[in-house]
Amino acid sequence: MVGSEGVEREIKIQVTDLDDLRQRLIELEAERSSPLAFEDNWLWDRDGELAGRGCILRLREDRNGNRLTFKGKAAFDGNTKVREEYETRVKEIEPLQGILKALGYQPVYRYQKRREEWQLGGITIALDHTPIGDFAEFEGAGAEKVAERCGLDAATAERRSYPEIYSDHRREHPDAPRDMVFP
Asked: Residue 2: is its pLDDT beyond 90?
């Protein structure tokens, strides 16, 4: 969730059982805001310019349509990742891809996940099933407290992005595909 000032505040924690977390959300009277759905993400860059600055330009296709997102370099407030974020909906993806390519950007990495979203006390909770495991993302002010209420240890929050997690996974599993996609 991005505040009106364009700042994202989130923590991501790897979980062993999404069903247990889902049950805990029900006990806490969280509201399921989006059912489980497939999500396809492409990162774009121009000669490593954005990656070199710790930034991300992402084009996402999911149940809600298409979105282009810019994320600035991450900083941390305790276990919470804080960074500039701007996002806009895109009606037609092909013309946008043409614009990005004309500006010198190319798709450099792809990752997929299945995601469902919940709301609790102003926090968006995303339950993500990825090709390399399950994660919960808590987004908004107070994300750490809500994660703790759900029985998770905020001190175990993942500081890496999905592409960074997968890059480390590939070092341990050299036969893994280049991109984090489902078979």
From this structure: no
The set of residues, in sequence order, having a beta carbon less than 8 Å from that of 122 and lying 6+ positions away, is: 140, 141, 142
Task: Determine the Cα–Cα distance for residues 101 and 85; give it in Å rounded to an integer.
Answer: 22
What the chain holds in terms of domains, given with CATH numbers, is: 7-172 (2.40.320.10)
Q: What secondary structure does DSSP assign to 108-157, as a single string?
A: EEEEEEEEEEEEETTEEEEEEEETTEEEEEEESTTHHHHHHHTT--GGG-
Tell me the three state secondary structure of residue 26: helix
Name the pLDDT band for 1 (thresholds 50, 70, 90).
very low
DSSP bridge partners of 158: 12
Mean pLDDT (whole number) for 140-152: 96
